[in-house]
Automatic annotation (TrEMBL):
<dbReference type="GO" id="GO:0006508">
    <property type="term" value="P:proteolysis"/>
</dbReference>
<feature type="region of interest" description="Disordered">
    <location>
        <begin position="252"/>
        <end position="277"/>
    </location>
</feature>
<feature type="domain" description="Peptidase S8/S53">
    <location>
        <begin position="140"/>
        <end position="623"/>
    </location>
</feature>
<dbReference type="InterPro" id="IPR015500">
    <property type="entry name" value="Peptidase_S8_subtilisin-rel"/>
</dbReference>
<feature type="active site" description="Charge relay system">
    <location>
        <position position="149"/>
    </location>
</feature>
<feature type="domain" description="Inhibitor I9">
    <location>
        <begin position="23"/>
        <end position="99"/>
    </location>
</feature>
<dbReference type="InterPro" id="IPR034197">
    <property type="entry name" value="Peptidases_S8_3"/>
</dbReference>
<dbReference type="InterPro" id="IPR000209">
    <property type="entry name" value="Peptidase_S8/S53_dom"/>
</dbReference>
<keyword id="KW-0732">Signal</keyword>
<dbReference type="InterPro" id="IPR036852">
    <property type="entry name" value="Peptidase_S8/S53_dom_sf"/>
</dbReference>
<dbReference type="InterPro" id="IPR037045">
    <property type="entry name" value="S8pro/Inhibitor_I9_sf"/>
</dbReference>
<dbReference type="InterPro" id="IPR045051">
    <property type="entry name" value="SBT"/>
</dbReference>
<feature type="domain" description="Subtilisin-like protease fibronectin type-III">
    <location>
        <begin position="671"/>
        <end position="757"/>
    </location>
</feature>
<feature type="active site" description="Charge relay system">
    <location>
        <position position="564"/>
    </location>
</feature>
<dbReference type="Pfam" id="PF17766">
    <property type="entry name" value="fn3_6"/>
</dbReference>
<keyword id="KW-0720">Serine protease</keyword>
<comment type="similarity">
    <text>Belongs to the peptidase S8 family.</text>
</comment>
């Protein structure tokens, strides 16, 4: 089984740099019959040959030939060639590779979600009588996790192979070599592929700190401990990199900014891979913060690394926001994930980092587990004390400290060099904007982009190069008022400390992208939320903790935030569930996670946003994931590949599988057997059907309960379900009716939220 923050197929090429010719994906649907790989490539080449002037041009234009899950290829085409290919009978669709759609949605967390409990003596005695989830799942052994991201730092201790058994027999992948990445970094050296761009000197990793901005598919990556080439028991069992589409768009890779290989030079991929499947490593910290044991959720799962994220020329390594999603027929990730689902591969994707605005989430297809980001109960408290005695609770993971005294305090906009525009960016402390004479020996208040009231108390714990702390937008107002109130404003920063059991937690991260779903407003997204704020995990030693070229530091572990951090948490839970329930479908696993998710924080109140206001399902989906409960959900809402095709028929997408013919009448999208229910623009009354499958006790009874949305009535029939064997299916109807139909017509853009359950 493979899954990742996005999917594992190779729909990766990007737009070509030429104004006329661009990278397109030519999609044929399913593979028909049994063909050798070279036969499939020849088949794809024949189509290019029919629109190109010569065989050489046809060969040169072909970037990737998709030979496994889907049938198609990526090539550089002109508009005229696209038109000709689109008119051919066997071609389902031709659509452009979306150039900037996918960005990096950038460990206490496993204790916080209940996977590794903090147990007292009596609890330990009780636990010995029953195996916990990790033991039942054999810590993810024999499960393969595919991570699609920006590479891996294989020497990290989080990817040690010590004590691991043989690799799964089902593994068919390869280890592709390249710069600073050779066959010893994977365990199947008999299946290695020599890169045509490999440097002669591969003796060790290269440490160069350069800025780069990631262009990613929000995914996940992997790493492993370097071992002698004779060992065959590695955690990292495969690695590949995909560069052709990127270079078609941007020209040759600048090798000072990244490795032409699966090696990670940024840190993001190493971080996500170790979160999902990193080994337990004791006595680690991030610059002295969060000390303890680092571990992935499925520490014995194997990792397959697919590097697809590369530095964008002229841009820096910031956490990019995600663009609006594309319709399913033009969304390579949605198409690839659909075919993966047919092969029972579970696909988990990050929702994106474009919050707190509504309708910003990506990856909304119902066959994908879409994951939002929330906090854990750990803080890195670094207070700021003002000259008037006011103490403001900031956060930071800087290792640098001030002397125990007060320092002059200045607002950045009042300390800029001549010529800096007096606009909204004057206070951002941009490079070269501050006057050294005005800031020397002082504490400077800098405004971080995006530090707005909507961000609430969601504070990033950054590894600053100076003594520093991050404060909320509300506290910024207090600081500025203080500066204006005195001729000599003073302040100091108290050294930071790690605080556990912070409350309330979880709360939703301000950056997590929100619903409603813009592709289909009858499918509720995201599905679930998980820890994504200030997460500690392994890091690339080819990068720095700030990912800045000005930062000379090298760390083995780092703290990072994003939905790219929350998604591997859910992916690890998927790995454990798959190990315990190998026959469950991808839909059953998603259902188990969603129907057992939690809705309250650690003070027993409903989950809030970062400002303390009640959050809603457009932020957290079904709630905060609870992996131990998901292992025994009782009932699941199962969905087949055919169900998804019927769903697509209903919303007008009829070409993703050419072998399937849509019926004259297909079920409404509301009737997709999904664990949640969303009804858009309800005028009067709607009845939908759900089918529950018993995966709990053979003889069991479930009672329905409902909390109706304000202004609506909800009725479940039958209200009681009786089961007498495992695997038995029972259907029930849910009728939702507007109490005041006239009012609902006037307010059809507003949403109300409620709950139903079978328990």
């Amino acid at each position: 089984m493979r899954f990742c923050d996005f999917f594992l197929l190779f729909l990766l090429p990007l737009l070509a740099s030429c104004a006329e010719r661009k990278v397109y994906i030519v999609y044929f649907g399913e593979h028909s019959g049994q063909k050798a790989l070279h036969e499939i490539e020849d088949y794809h080449h024949s189509y290019l040959l029919s629109v190109k002037a010569s065989e050489e041009e046809a060969r040169d234009s072909l970037l990737y030939s998709y030979k496994h899950s889907i049938n198609g290829f990526a090539a550089v085409l002109s508009p005229h060639e696209v038109t000709k290919l689109s008119e051919m009978d066997e071609v389902v669709s031709v659509f452009p590779s979306q150039r900037k759609k996918h960005t990096l949605h950038t460990t206490r967390s496993w204790e916080f979600v209940g996977l590794e409990k903090e147990l007292g003596r009596e609890q330990l005695k009780k636990q010995k009588k029953t195996r916990n989830l990790l033991e039942k799942a054999r810590y993810g052994d024999q499960i393969i996790v595919g991570m699609v991201d920006n590479g891996v730092w294989p020497e990290s201790k989080s990817f040690s192979d010590e004590g691991m058994g043989p690799i799964p027999k089902s593994w068919k992948g390869i280890c592709q070599t390249g710069v600073a990445f050779n066959s010893s970094h994977c365990n199947r050296h008999g299946d290695t592929v020599q890169s045509p761009f490999q440097d002669e000197d591969e003796s060790g990793p290269i440490r160069v700190h350069t800025p780069w901005s990631v262009r990613d598919r929000g995914l996940h990556v992997t790493h492993n401990l370097m071992c002698p080439a004779s060992l065959l028991l590695r955690k990292l069992i495969g690695a590949r990199y995909y560069l052709k589409g990127y270079e078609s768009d941007n020209g040759p890779l600048n090798t000072t900014t990244d490795y032409r290989s699966p090696r990670d030079k940024d840190g993001h991929g190493t971080h996500t891979a170790s979160t999902v499947a990193g080994r337990r490593v004791h006595n680690v910290s991030a610059l002295g913060y969060a000390p303890g044991t680092a571990s992935g959720g499925a520490p014995l799962a194997r990792l397959a690394i697919y590097k697809v994220c590369w530095p964008i020329p002229g841009q820096t390594k910031h956490l990019y926001r995600t663009s609006q999603p594309f319709t399913y027929a033009k969304d390579g990730i949605a198409i690839g994930a659909l075919h993966a689902t047919k092969n029972n591969i579970v696909v988990a994707c990050s929702a994106g980092n474009s919050g707190p605005a509504p309708s910003t989430l990506s990856n909304p297809a119902p066959w994908i587990i879409t994951v939002g980001a929330s906090s854990i109960d750990r803080a890195f408290v670094t207070p700021l004390v003002l000259g008037n005695g006011m103490k403001l609770m900031g956060q930071s993971v800087t290792p640098y400290k001030l002397k125990k005294k007060m320092y002059p305090l200045v607002f950045a906009a009042d300390a800029v060099v001549p010529g800096v525009p007096k606009n909204n960016t004057a206070a951002n402390c941009n490079f070269g904007s501050l006057d050294p004479k005005k800031v020397k020996g002082k504490i400077v208040l800098c405004l971080r982009g995006g530090n707005t009231p909507e961000n609430g108390f969601d504070l990033p714990a950054d590894p600053h190069l100076l003594p520093a702390t991050a404060v909320s937008s509300e506290d910024v107002t207090k600081i500025r008022n203080y500066i204006k109130s005195t001729k000599k404003p003073m302040a100091t920063i108290i050294p930071g400390r790690t605080v556990l059991h912070a409350k309330p937690a979880p709360f939703m991260a301000s950056f997590t992208s929100r619903g409603p779903n813009t592709i289909d407003p009858n499918i509720l997204k995201p599905d679930i939320t998980g820890p994504g704020l200030n997460i500690l995990a392994a890091w690339s030693e080819g990068s720095s903790p700030t990912r800045s070229e000005l930062d000379p530091r090298v760390v083995k572990y780092n703290i990072f935030s994003g939905t790219s951090m929350s998604c591997p948490h859910v992916a690890a839970a998927v790995a454990l569930l798959k190990a315990i329930h190998p026959n469950w479908s991808s839909a059953a696993i998603r259902s188990a996670l969603m129907t057992t998710a939690g809705l309250v924080n650690n003070i027993g109140k409903p989950i809030t946003d970062s400002s303390g206001n009640p959050a809603n399902p457009f932020q957290y989906g079904s709630g905060h994931f609870r992996p131990t409960k998901a292992a025994d959900p009782g009932l699941v809402y199962d969905t087949t590949y055919t169900d998804y095709l019927l769903y697509l028929c209903n919303i007008g997408v009829k070409s993703l599988d050419s072998s399937f013919k849509c019926p004259k009448v297909s079920p409404s999208s509301n009737n997709l057997n999904y664990p949640s229910l969303q009804i858009s623009k309800l005028k009067r009354k709607v009845t939908v059907t759900r089918t529950a499958t018993n995966v709990g006790s053979a003889r069991s009874i479930y009672f329905s309960s409902v909390k109706s949305p304000v202004g609506f009535s909800v009725r479940v029939e039958p209200s009681i379900l009786y089961f007498n064997h495992v695997g038995q299916k029972k259907s029930f109807d849910i009728t939702v009716e507007a109490r005041n139909p006239k009012a609902s017509k006037k307010n059809d853009t507003e949403y109300a939220f409620g709950w139903y359950s079978m328990e």
